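Running co-folding for protoporphyrin IX containing FE.
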Amino acid sequence: MRTVGERGPTTLENYQFLEKITHFDRERIPERVVHARGAGAHGYFEAYGTIGGEPASKYTRAKLFQEKGKRTPVFVRFSSVIHGGHSPETLRDPRGFATKFYTEDGNWDLVGNNLRVFFIRDPLKFPDMVHAFKPDPVTNVQDMQRFFDFVSLTPEATHMITWLFSPWGIPASYRQMQGAGVNTYKMYNKNGEGVLVKYHWLPKLGVKGLTQAEANEVQSTNFNHATVDLFQAIEQGDHPEWELNVQIMSDGEHAELDFDPLDDTKVWPEDQFPMLPVGRMVLDRNPQNYFAEVEQAAFGTGVLVDGLDFSDDKMLQGRTLSYSDTQRYRVGPNYLQLPINRPKKHVATNQRDGQMTYHVDGVEAGENPHINYEPSSLGGGLHEAPQSEHKDHEPYVAGNLTRKKISRTNDFKQAGERYQAMEQWERDDLILNLVNNLKICKRDIQERMVSYFTQADAEYGRRVAEGIGLSSASSNGANGADRSNGAATHASATELVKEGAQH
Ligand code: HEM
């Protein structure tokens, strides 16, 4: 430090000091608007060359799946969703499971969660949902009355809530959780024929969730347990592994199903759509720098390679704008030039300049650096993509522009099946967690929630109702529950009693 005399003021030409402090002042970037708390690791994906025993080429021409033993480097970021950057990893929340495959055709990002379904099926509701779940704008504290206020007016969330308030809502570690693409994607083959696909990561260590009591115990001594567990396991050579499975359905409406294949509040029953293994993933290298690799990592649902596609899933399409948009703000317009995000294969665009430009397309490839446009006869620049040797996947789409919602809502049946599939200790924990959180809510919120649980499963509704002191209303309400069609309804438990009495 340069000062006027030993005790005097500092001066403005203290260049090193000014540089150091002003850089320090800018060490943070905006945290992710959701999924702010996370941990990441590098590894590889190894293909089986087959999908459910058939050559992978039957369903997709994506190169990473074709040959048995073929390895593709990956980077995975696990996360929790609602709270900020250093929030406890013991909180009840879905967990993110985002994988970046650095394939020879460019990057493929599979941006999933540990739970197989989601709260909503309309992307327009996403910001409202996040606002209701995030801390209250006045107190800055998460308020479960706001949370259940939103959920109690969103019957399609009942299935997700049934997963989330069970031990699945607090994974014991990142290594012991599943991943799911949640939204419906497509694969297409060399003939351009497409199928609908759901992706699943199944952990070799099996799935383990914590009861609320167990999570409280962990949190009392360690609120970083998931990050520590992942980092230490990899450091010690105990490399976590997952198998990638797909469920496949022919493309179409599937009127025979009691749910819409494009509805992300539903699972595809495994007895009808079995899990088909396609490869395995091993994480074997920790990041060298958390900020450069994990914080600046940018995943998006639009990042696909030849052979993989979107479906018409509205949520998926809503997500696809959001990710790269937020990343241009959060990391900067040239976020794709950073080593963690940059494809290993050179991908040419005519995009130029902007803050922090480092790389100029085509220069390494020896192309003419004067040309950043097309068409051009001078060489360089990106020209129209060459015609693929294969047939394009060209689904036929026609219809009026409408504001119609998915009509096969069936909001409660799968929630009931989930409840019935749980072991007794899981159900007990689910009920306890719902009761403890709903206790503080207003009566009408409680009644709406009980009516949903009752429509899912009579015992489920009765136990929650008893726990929060609504017992008579909800147990009668169970008689009127319509589990077969599960039509969206905001009927309160009391209204259901009336309906039940008429039957
Ligand atoms: C319309 C619905 C959705 C919207 C608008 C949305 C938007 C976002 C945004 C803006 C981010 C922050 C990205 C960043 O800063 O890099 C994010 C992160 C994330 N979202 Fe979504 N999201 C939606 C639904 C979902 C669903 C259904 C899933 C689960 C399959 C999901 C999984 C994730 C994951 C895992 C991350 C963290 C990625 C990472 O580790 O960097 N999101 N989402």
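Result summary
Confidence is low (pLDDT under 50) at residues 472-503.
The radius of gyration is 25 Å.
Job closed.
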